[in-house]
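ok so i was messing around last nite and threw this chain in just to see what happens. nothing serious, just curious
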Amino acid sequence: MQYQIMGETMPVVEITFDAAGEEMYTQSGGMSWMTEGVEMSTNTRGGLMKGIGRMFAGESMFMATYQSQMPGAVIAFSSTVAGRILPIDLMTEGNLICQKGAFLCAENGVNLDVVFTKKISSGLFGGEGFILQKLSGSGMAFLEIDGDMVEKRLEPGEVLKVDTGNVVAFSPEVAYEVEMVKGLGNIVLGGEGLFLTKLTGPGRVILQTQNISEFAGRIAKFIPTGK
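result:
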């Protein structure tokens, strides 16, 4: 397959299949357009428990698989909010742990599995939940970035503290936990919430400048609640 990312504010990745039998999959409703010569099938992709696990991770229970029936067939997947689409070649870049909602689509050779953070505190207080997603296998995967992307390479022992909603993905060797903001005044008046995500190197960290949960909260203030 070949791909092209188009657009700047609300980007889309357009896939051109090289041969019949090639496949891409996405969560239900992720496809934007396609030409003739693409056949769709919907299932839990891996069984019922995998489907339920994806629901907890913020994705749909059912996944849609699109198979090319002829060379040159085209299908496109678009982002859901303003930002960018990040292509990941797992063969060269390695596995990634992703926050919920980051996954857009992938080739059939890419595995999307549910993983749990090692500390219960991360799950209870992390804001984004303790269920994450692991991308492994071989092939291309595409992630949604809300806003702009910032990538960092942490040295061994180097610590980065991030608002949880600004984390997109990180390599498996990065240690992940959640810690409470210190100081009562900071908690009450700081406006940053109770907890931060603590990432400890070595490894790759991908961040996004837009925190969609905070953005939605600000928009909600302007929505009339009464007559």
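not much to say yet. Residues 122-129, 184-191 have pLDDT under 50 and may be disordered.
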